[in-house]
Amino acid sequence: MPIDLRVDAVRGDLADVDLADRVFAPHYAKACAFNVIATTELRAAPSAEAETMVSLNPGEQFDLLDISGGWGWGRSAGAVGYVVSNAIEPL
C-alpha cells in the first residue's frame, strides 16, 4: 500500500514507528497520546498561515510524534499535521 502523507505520519526526517515496515526514515518515533485542551487547527505546516487540514476541539485525542518550536507534529481525526503545542497536553 502506498504512503499517503495526508494520513501516514512520515516526514523527511521522521516517521511513525508503526510504518517502519513500509517506509525508510532516518528516525522513527512512537506516538504519545495527548489531549486537545483548546480549539485549534491541524495545519499542513508549522505556521499559523499554513493550510488547515481539520479543526480540533477540546477532548479530542492528538497522537504526538514530535514537538519543536512551539508546534507539535502528529495525527488526529484521520489526518497528519501540526498543532500549536499549547493546545495539547499529555493524557
TrEMBL record:
Matches recorded under Pfam families: SH3_16 (PF18348)
Coiled-coil parts of chain: none
InterPro entries linked to this entry: SH3-like_dom_sf, SH3_16
Signal peptide: none
Positions of the Bacterial dipeptidyl-peptidase SH3 domain: 42-88
Domain of life of the organism encoding this protein: Bacteria
Protein name: SH3 domain-containing protein
Naturally occurring in which organism (per UniProt): Sphingomonas paeninsulae
